[in-house]
Amino acid sequence: MTSHVVGYPRMGPKRELKFALESMWDGKTQAADLEQVAKDLRASIWKQMSEAGVSMIPSNTFSYYDQVLDTTAMVGAVPARYGWTGGEIGHDVYFSMARGNKTKPAMEMTKWFDTNYHYIVPELSGETKFVYSSRKAVSEYKEAKELGVDTVPVLIGPVTYLLLSKGDKSAPKGFNTLSLLDAILPVYKEVITELKEAGASWIQLDEPKLVMDLEASQYEAFKKAYAVLGEVAQVKLLVETYFTDLPAEAYKTLCDLPIAGFGVDLVRGNKTLSLIKEHGLPEGKTLFAGVVDGRNIWANDLAASVAVVEELQAKLGKDNVVVSTSCSLLHSAVDLKNETKLDSELKSWMAFAAQKLLEVVAVAKAVSGQKDEAFFAANASAQESRRNSPRVHNKAVKEAAAALAGSEHRRSTPVSSRLEQQQKYLNLPILPTTTIGSFPQTPELRRVRREVKSKKISEEDYDKAIKAEIDSVVKLQEELDIDVLVHGEPERNDMVEYFGEQLDGFCFSANGWVQSYGSRCVKPPIIFGDVSRPKAMTVYWSTYAQSVTKRPIKGMLTGPVTILNWSFVRNDQPRSETCYQISLAIKDEVEDLEKANITVIQIDEAALREGLPLRKSEHADYLRWAVHGFRITTCGVKDTTQIHTHMCYSNFNDIIHSIIDMDADVITIENSRSDEKLLSVFREGVHYGAGIGPGVYDIHSPRIPPTEEMADRARKMLAVLESKVLWINPDCGLKTRKYAEVVPALTNMVNAAKQLRAELAN
Ligand SMILES: [Zn+2]
């Protein structure tokens, strides 16, 4: 039986591509050095897949930055500002689009569906002329062939590409990028023809947009596109979909397209399987059954996958099913082989991309009667040990989480009267100023944290160094005359990892990196067991900070939904259950901070919005348990304890009622980068009774905003919000900035607040 892999991580097992890219960008190495690293990586990936026995091996899933940007290069859709005048697109133009250059900013970047991978958003207009301008797909196909590997070249499909694009500045409002379909198809046809001539027998076109809620005209675009591409004779087209269930209409569309096969995600969502069983498959089409999870790091339950594939075969015919991954393995970690920190039992429960290749092949072989008994036996015993391990299952935690059902966990006093009681304690001026939490992270701080971990310095020296940093951050804020202070988070490496390291049920890999964008990778914590908090996590530093100032210090916590969304989560229980367990741990921390006389506590939910499911029909359920998870953390505090939350984005007009339902006393939000989009929701009459601090200062840029500019931003807010609820603060934490930028910017921010207070007093 045939095995297939949708795509593979490109960074390399030790992030080789990252270091090669950054070294070239810094001018330390030449383009030729980068190209050699890239070529070696591609060769090793193809060799690995071929040795594993994968029958359909992808090519062109490698990228120097992003596969959507590669497609922009392929079709020559370079925005005019980069001065490209035609010909094959080289590194200069490519990296200018990705990262900007001395004179031109980069193109916009956004999240790839509901993953933490980001792509470069194509900018199109009615004037865009598509020209075949990057032969990367063909050259990678040939490169593999020279190494003796016949691959399946992978392209982003034309309809998904256009739907992911946006109208550029010249495009009229409401410009429909799909209107360019006729114009882009000839380039795709040219590429497919050239790939066929180079010897490719299958070509994979990724069309993940098919899993989304689409309109009739969008389904029509798929029919039109594949009617044209299907005209290229003697090559089989595979349309790949992933990330959730297919809507029935999409399934029907795929069945009708003149293509040889299509791929479905059978891991995330459980409705596609019923669609297949109900409707079957038209004669001559092949189903690529994505049974190995590309979004996680858990070992596949091989026996369960074999059962699914056998069921499909019985329904569709033996030769019409191919075993595949649920999506590209880009979203998993690379290779478990390099893990030195995880013990052997934990490792036996896991599979990174390299191990997932073996799983795909093992399932395919087993279905064709060549079952690797030893491999299956080892897998079954690992599954069994994970199901029963006391490291995974904690009865007390499960009981506490189960006891949450049926309660709303709301604070009993309404927010307006809580705010009045808090003000009696806090005695803050009108338009109070604060920051979001972190202060600049200096190399010195990173050194101190590294050295205490490796025991190069003693705990006492570490303690002294962190306290000295807190002293100076608190003193600075007092000098700046900020009203609600923070301790600056010098002890924290990362807002999720810091908590994960102190909670039971989490583990950390040494090399489990996943590409986030360009050369940037993240190493998500792994939640493997029931979550509990052995002891207080932040009380020590927060109380120290409070001991050196009379002004209120904000206790700083990461919220349960954000911890959940930025980790690799368990696949043996619903996400909501894991979220509730984390909520209970954070609730204990909140109450310990309160007992220690910290009366302002911020619980960040930076990632609440990004956890929204892809399909609208699933939003309400997610928001219900996510918002409930947040309320669990705060429902036990006194009315006089002020709960803040923070969100790093402003496009929440569609979820504003869920945000209100979180019932925080004060919310701080990104606002300055997005043209005050946020304020439109209040203009439209939504009433927000709690305190609110839309950011007046964009911390993502080194630019120092002048006082008048920040005052102006706040004046716009005052036009739609009452002065007694408005806070003045930056957009986000300051850890990526330098003190040389932060000090003058915060000085201007406080001056802006004082200027407005004077205006309001008149
Ligand atoms: Zn933020």
TrEMBL record:
Binding sites annotated in the UniProt record for L-methionine: I436, G437, S438, E489, D604
Residues covered by the Cobalamin-independent methionine synthase MetE N-terminal domain: 3-315
Matching CDD domains: CIMS_C_terminal_like, CIMS_N_terminal_like
SUPFAM superfamilies per the UniProt record, alphabetical: UROD/MetE-like
Pathway terms, separated by semicolons: Amino-acid biosynthesis; L-methionine biosynthesis via de novo pathway; L-methionine from L-homocysteine (MetE route): step 1/1
Residues at which Zn(2+) binds: H646, C648, H657, D661, E670, C732
Catalytic site: H700 (proton donor)
Reaction(s) the record says it catalyses: 5-methyltetrahydropteroyltri-L-glutamate + L-homocysteine = tetrahydropteroyltri-L-glutamate + L-methionine
Cofactor: Zn(2+)
GO molecular function: 5-methyltetrahydropteroyltriglutamate-homocysteine S-methyltransferase activity; methionine synthase activity; zinc ion binding
InterPro entries, sorted: Cbl-indep_Met_Synth_N, Cobalamin-indep_Met_synthase, Met_Synth_C/arc, UROD/MetE-like_sf
Alphabetized UniProt keyword annotations: Amino-acid biosynthesis, Metal-binding, Methionine biosynthesis, Methyltransferase, Transferase, Zinc
Pfam families the UniProt entry points to: Meth_synt_1 (PF08267), Meth_synt_2 (PF01717)
EC code(s) of this entry: 2.1.1.14
Cofactor binding note: Binds 2 Zn(2+) ions per subunit.
Superkingdom of this protein's organism: Eukaryota
Residue span(s) of domain Cobalamin-independent methionine synthase MetE C-terminal/archaeal: 431-754
Purpose: Catalyzes the transfer of a methyl group from 5-methyltetrahydrofolate to homocysteine resulting in methionine formation.
Family: Belongs to the vitamin-B12 independent methionine synthase family.
Protein name per UniProt: 5-methyltetrahydropteroyltriglutamate--homocysteine S-methyltransferase
Organism: Physcomitrium patens
Lineage of the species this protein comes from: Eukaryota, Viridiplantae, Streptophyta, Embryophyta, Bryophyta
